[in-house]
Amino acid sequence: MSEPTDAGWVTVALLGKARGNRGEITAWALSSKPERYQALQEVYLCAPAVAGLGERFEVESTWFHLETLILKFRGVDTISDAERLSGLEVRIPISQRTPLEPGEFFQSDLVGCEVVDRRTGKSLGRVSDWQDSGGPGLLVVEGDVLIPFARAICVEIDTVSKRIAVELPEGLKDLNRS
Q1: Which of 70, 135, 165, 177 has its CA 20 to 30 A from that of 39?
Q2: In this predicted model, which residue has the larger pLDDT, 64 or 137?
Q3: Where are the alpha helices (DSSP H) in the chain?
Q4: Cα separation of 148 and 71, whole Å?
């Protein structure tokens, strides 16, 4: 794999605690599709909020135990080795993300999009974050406005142009102000 020189990285998991005595480590998978982790061959481990390259690790194996992702890296063979990795982000180059099905979007591609009221053309701000809510995810728009990421509301999504047109249900703006 060639190393990207730009800031084109995406975090795919967050490392948890050591598991077993052979250097395995638990991870919080940031994708709802477990099969995406089977293709991982090499990753970069970085401290959260640190830009760019971290340390390169070869992935020996990945599997799920119940709903927890388990990773085994080559050269990480003891509990102590695995414990040192706890809390790190697992990153890959953006170019290696698994292709999406039509109508699917990476959360990271939604952040930074301008949200526009389709009826009035007025900008509501930019997406600053994503929240999982147990139902549809929520777009966090500047000023702490929460908009459900649902087709009935987010009617036009163009991540290339960084624009999301919404048709807000009656009262949603007022609900966010409370």
Answers
A1: 135
A2: 64
A3: 79-83, 107-110, 172-177
A4: 32
Q: Write down the residue that tokens 């790190």 correspond to.
A: 88
Structure tokens at 34: 């477990």
The model's pLDDT over 10-58, given as tens digits with 9 standing for 90+, comes to 888 999 999 989 999 999 998 777 888 988 999 999 988 776 668 999 9
Return the CATH number at 126: 2.30.30.240
Phi, psi for 124 (deg, rounded to 5): -100, -5
Q: Do 90 and 100 form a contact (C-beta atoms < 8 A)?
A: no
Would you state the pLDDT for residue 34?
80
Residues 26 and 85 in one domain: yes
Using CA atoms, how far residue 79 sits from 24, 25, 26, 93, in Å, is: 8, 9, 12, 28
What is the residue range of 126's domain? 107-177
